[in-house]
Every structure is written in structure tokens, then in C-alpha cells.
Amino acid sequence: QSVLTQPPSASGTPGLRVTISCSGSSSNIGSNFVNWYQQLPGTAPKLLIYYINQRPSGVPDRFSGSKSGTSASLAISGLQSEDEADYYCSAWDDSLNGPVFGGGTKLTVL
Amino acid sequence: QLQLQESGPGLVKPSETLSLTCTVSGGSISSSSFFWGWIRQPPGKGLEWIGTISYSGRTYYNPSLRSRVTISVDTSKNQFALRLTSVTAADTAVYSCARLPEAASYFDQWGQGTLVTVSS
Fold it and tell me: pLDDT by residue (tens digit) across A17-39?
């Protein structure tokens, strides 16, 4: 059972917008930055968003992040077929003194 | 371009020790700007942080695994290693090594991962 809670699945139509939620607690999301990873089938996770809403070089601005209290969200606009992947949220946990992850959300592009 | 590559046995017997090595290429493991970590993913499940090490050998472990985990670094070989003792079937997972920028909470570079199965 993961420390951060994500819906196991999400879906969307090409061109439209989809959001993925991530819920935590005061010791992680509530007091630290949130990061997101994208894992394409059969590949290693790739950093997608860091420090809530920062994108590494090469990540399209279709991807954006936000945080409110002990929850966070990843939004993907202009959905494309290549966005079909597993998405994981993560945050530093002050109790663990290390990063914690969500269980992952499998995104299907219809 | 920085690359990380995990290596080690893909099959370990119950109660034995799992040993993996991560070889870093395209960059120096001795940089004070980064830490190096291990993360695992059991089949069909989410990610779990195992532990992190600095180039100087300072370590941080997940409390749930601390009694069984040792992470070490060999700067001469540009490698760091994971040892997990007394393994059970619950330790079956894809094990990945990754880089963590100093003072950051995210892993910015990952290895491909290697599946380790615990079975007799």
C-alpha cells in the first residue's frame, strides 16, 4: 500500500484535457514539493514535473502540476496517444526522511 | 549524456542476499552535487524508495528496510551497490538505480531497471 494515493486508472480523448490526483498528508505533500514521473510501457520512470509545476528540459508545456494543501494534481492538455503511460506522484516525507510515491495511475487515451 | 545501468543476478533464493551494482557512465559519481539511490517496483505495484548514498558514503535508508539494506559506493569504478539480506518472495521486484540532485526530492536520471525474482 503506497503512502500517496492515486486513482488506479484514468482515461481521456485525444485533444482534450485529463487530470490525475494525488493525495497525501501533512508530512509529505502538505509540507514539501510534489514531483511527477511518467513511465511508458517497458521503460524506466522519467521525471515529468518537479517542484510542483516545473518541467525538465524537453517536457512539453501540455503537462502541468498544481498543489493544494495535502493534495496535488497533474494535468495533461491536448492529450496525445503517446501520453498513454503510468504516472506516479512523489514527495519528500519528513517522517521517513526520504521520498514516497503514489501507487501509480494508468492513463488510457481512448 | 549520463547513463545508469543495473547489473546482478536475476534470481535469488529465499533467505539469501540480493546484490546489485549500478554503473554510472557519462558523468562522475564523485560530484558533490548529486546523491545516488535505489528504488524498487514489485510486479503490478507502485514504486518504493530503498535508500540513497552520497559520493562520500553518507547513507539514508527507508526505515522499513533499514535492518536488511546496505548501500555502498566505489568512486574508483564509478559504481554504487545495493545489498539486501534475508530476502523473501515479497522482495521480488524491478530494482532501479537513479540520481538525486543534492537537496532535491526527485530522481532526475534513472537506469532501465532489472527484475530480481526471489524463488527457490
Answer: 999 999 999 999 999 999 999 99
